[in-house]
Amino acid sequence: MKKQILNQAINDLSFAIMHLSQDIKFEIYKETTNNFKIMKNDYEKTKILKVSSSGSENSIYKNKYINILARVFHDKIHLKHDLNFSKDDEISVARIQFAIVKNFLLKYT
User: Global pTM?
Assistant: First the structure.
């Protein structure tokens, strides 16, 4: 029963991430910067988010591409709210993500 509930939660989260990241332009790279200022400056110049594929095979999602979309969604929140990669800002990003996904799933599931 627990495994079934967990699988449904992962499916719901994957569904939300696919929809919430669909309008974000991005490119996939093997590695990207872990410096917020560089990421922000690059995005402001190109309007294309550079996302790392590193470790994408080992995620909670059922496929690599959903994990990459989760990174796109996550990084876009960093940029939109000007939140860097500090512990406090990562917590803020996670809270924003939770609220967005929760509202999306309440509407569409």
Answer: 0.90
